Amino acid sequence: MNKFSRTMNSPATRRSVDEITGSRRLRRTRKADWSRRLVRENHLTVDDLIWPLFLMEGENRQEPLEAMPGVMRHTVDHAVRQAERAARLGIPAIATFPNIDPARRDETGSHSLDPDNLINRATRAIKEAVPEIGIITDVALDPFTSHGHDGILRDGEIVNDETVAQIAVAAVGQAAAGADIIAPSDMMDGRIGAIRDALDQNGFQNVAIMSYATKFASAFYGPYREAIGTGGLLKGDKKTYYIDPANSDEALREAEQDLLEGADMLIVKPGLPYLDIVHRLKDTFAVPTFAYQVSGEYAMIKAAAANGWIDGERAMVESLLAFKRAGCDGILTYFAPEMAELL
């Protein structure tokens, strides 16, 4: 027996675990499945899920997205079927994002104002077929512009005020089509107040605003941009209007401003890399707070699972629980139908 072993076994130096912990054994509540469930602090339910759906032109078609296994673009009639599926699963709301025909895109995203554009046609069709499901629409201009930016591009600059005026009009059009929640993701200054004023002045006082208050200039958006057809269009980057990923206090200032202008709910985007932002927003403002588990987050889990590197189902559940633990009231996630079926 070496000197270390003799010292460890000496009665003079050995204390029992009960003496060390004061008889506080934290593993007691982890000993069985029933006890773990009994003391679980956060729970994920189908009521926490919002399902993003991608739209495309045409009839009775859907297209798979290579970088997002299991995710499709849907024509309007197929989107209606997906909304019906969501309702059967108990998912409270869907969020729609269009892949606009390139021929309809221009420098100003003017097609966003067309009352019969793809978003609005899908909203009307879904509301008629599935009136009980919530519909969330985005008024950012990136699906409609020829340059892929969220606003109007003038002389190399995304002009703020002209963009705000246009998206406020587009928001009224989306509300008239039946959108329940307008969720502007463009990050222009003053957009929330302008949209609230436009909605109220046109009789849509009951249409809510879910603001992408803290949308970061992230590397995790790549597959989404392919899904809406802007991946190859983007000229420059979006750092002049999205938040620097290094900043946390700035995110709080953005959220506070949006709430003062009339936002009813807040979104943090992306999700998992910004759980600290979720937690700070919820602690500071105590308003309904959501996160968007974006395409890159989804794709990483799916790719790792496909390669056998992780258990995809467990990783999905764990990632969604993390949002609840951080303080989310709900999550926009492409896992929504898969998670709802599991639940």
Automatic annotation (TrEMBL):
<keyword id="KW-0350">Heme biosynthesis</keyword>
<comment type="pathway">
    <text>Porphyrin-containing compound metabolism; protoporphyrin-IX biosynthesis; coproporphyrinogen-III from 5-aminolevulinate: step 1/4.</text>
</comment>
<keyword id="KW-0627">Porphyrin biosynthesis</keyword>
<comment type="subunit">
    <text>Homooctamer.</text>
</comment>
<dbReference type="InterPro" id="IPR030656">
    <property type="entry name" value="ALAD_AS"/>
</dbReference>
<dbReference type="GO" id="GO:0004655">
    <property type="term" value="F:porphobilinogen synthase activity"/>
</dbReference>
<comment type="similarity">
    <text>Belongs to the ALAD family.</text>
</comment>
<dbReference type="InterPro" id="IPR001731">
    <property type="entry name" value="ALAD"/>
</dbReference>
<dbReference type="InterPro" id="IPR013785">
    <property type="entry name" value="Aldolase_TIM"/>
</dbReference>
<keyword id="KW-0456">Lyase</keyword>
<protein>
    <recommendedName>
        <fullName>Delta-aminolevulinic acid dehydratase</fullName>
        <ecNumber>4.2.1.24</ecNumber>
    </recommendedName>
</protein>
<dbReference type="Pfam" id="PF00490">
    <property type="entry name" value="ALAD"/>
</dbReference>
